[in-house]
Model the fold of this input.
Amino acid sequence: MERLDTSLLDGFRFACRPTCGLCCFASPHVPLEERAALLAAVPDALGAASGDHVPARAGGGACRLLSLSRCTAHAARPAPCREFPVSVHLGPRAQATLVLSCPGLDLTALAPARPDRSPAGPVGLETELAAARATLDRLDPRAERRARRGWREALDALGVEDPLALAERREAAATPLNVSATALRDEGLPDEADGLENLPLFHDDRFGTVAIAGSGAEVDLLVLRESGGVDRRLATYPRLERRPALDPSASEILEGYRAHLLARDGVVGAAALRALEAGPPGLSAALGLEVDAVLGATLARAAWRQQLEGRSGGSLEAAAVLAGIRATDADFLDRPTVGLWL
Ligand code: SF4
Ligand code: SF4
Done:
């Protein structure tokens, strides 16, 4: 049996868009064994700090090795960059997931009934998956054992028998899709004062890398500079107060995204932490809350992105919901969970 479970990637197609650069608004971890090769390629890659990350520029800027949306150390870029948009969650198993914010991913796989969906897959992710498998092969087996033990202890504390918590996933999936008003307000959004580097980002073909900042009853969309700082303020929109109507194809995408979230071990891990902190009523309810928070943010960001396209009012179209997923998904992968992250 393959050590890395890749079933969540089935049906996805990937082709990087070289002028995008979104994933490089980051500070990637450099594994110890890759450090010498990176420094041989770019001697000051780690900057003055010489830590185990390539530092991002201050003020929400990109990684210091990005120049005009291109990596200046491409052949020696560290493992997280070689693997992106694949991300591996280590818990009850090593599960490969995708960062759906990446514009190079075709997200039609989220709507399984679509006739144009790739029947199997993934397609175009061979290099990234090979890099992820190589990282996993190098991993100390004790780290995997620790992750499994942490997961088991958390589920034991919640009284859950099944290490993959399948019954809880099914129960959460069976509840009607009814995104709460609290989640639609997307209140967890950081504001500019929290630091531009902490804001959720999306890529827009016209403007480049755009950050979403909470601002009281409103949100601001800000175009960020590769060198750091705000290049321009694009728009200010009110928070979403009511669930917008969805076109049928938009509903299908949202349901597909919910199913995809529930299949991610990382989401179950985050729900387990939520349930352990809050106490009863347990994992199923916490999973429901977890998914509600993600889908609320998705719909709010979908509405803002649809307005950015010049369409306000009316129902949300499938393209807007996909844009909302792209503006949300990276936030919810980058969270602490039971087990470890690679
Ligand atoms: S976010 Fe995706 S499409 Fe954009 S540069 Fe990174 S891998 Fe390529
Ligand atoms: S090392 Fe290269 S690929 Fe990785 S984040 Fe920096 S610029 Fe992007």
